[in-house]
Amino acid sequence: MTQEHPITPPPELLKHWEDQHFDEGENYDVMLIQAYQAGADQELEACCEWLDMGCYQCSVALRAARRPKPPSLKEQALFAIDTAVADGRLSSDVSNVVRRALEALPND
Predict the structure, then answer these.
(1) pLDDT tens-digit profile of 74-97?
(2) What number of other Cβ atoms are within 10 A of residue 3's Cβ?
(3) Which of 1, 13, 52, 90 could be 9's S-S partner, Cβ–Cβ 3.0 to 4.6 Å?
(4) pLDDT in tens, 26-79
């Protein structure tokens, strides 16, 4: 098989992985996970580019569904407060003060 697959890592990324292994002694498992993620990201971008030709909003929705953003630090803190109150580890008075302070901060 001499035909190149349409989704292959760029030479710079291959060199980076090679350096990680030989120079830094990176574990093969970590490198395989990185390769798997890079391939999945490249496939998603190819699909979104194709969708952009006819339905830009579809590609935006696909990207958002397949690569959701992790919760912000503010959202994580608010969730932690809710959990602590529900578990009885934090009083509602204290949680209200902390919640108001967090909600006053700008969103990330």
Answers:
(1) 999 999 999 999 999 999 999 999
(2) 5
(3) 13
(4) 777 888 888 888 889 989 999 999 999 988 899 999 999 999 888 888 999 999
Indicate the helix (H) or strand (E) that contains 10. none
Q: How far apart are CA 83 and CA 89, in angstroms?
A: 9
Q: Taking Cα atoms as reference points, which of 71, 51, 72 lies closest to residue 60? A: 51
Q: Say if residue 98 is exposed, middle or buried (CB neighbours under 10 Å; 0-12, 13-18, 19+).
A: middle
For residue 55, give the DSSP letter. -
Burial class (CB in 10 A: 0-12, 13-18, 19+), 91: exposed
**Amino acid identity at 61:** A
Q: To the nearest 5 percent, what fractions of the chain are helix, strand and coil?
A: 70, 0, 30
Rg (CA), the chain: 22
Helices vs. strands in the chain: H and E counts, helices first: 5, 0
